[in-house]
């Protein structure tokens, strides 16, 4: 197998793997983690921890609001 074929195969595998990621959940959990870390910073940059609900409760609330519309 040539190196070009190997690189193309690797790129295709990575793209297929990324397609399987639940992006909504990943972004939401990233926001929760960032808020938690910000709340733990000392000094003027500290922000209050907003206590965001976990993703499953967030999804449940989104479904409830969509039904109400």
TrEMBL record:
Residues 32-69 are annotated as: Disordered. It comes from the Bacteria. Residues 51-69 have a biased composition (Basic and acidic residues). This is Lipoprotein. It comes from Piscinibacter terrae.
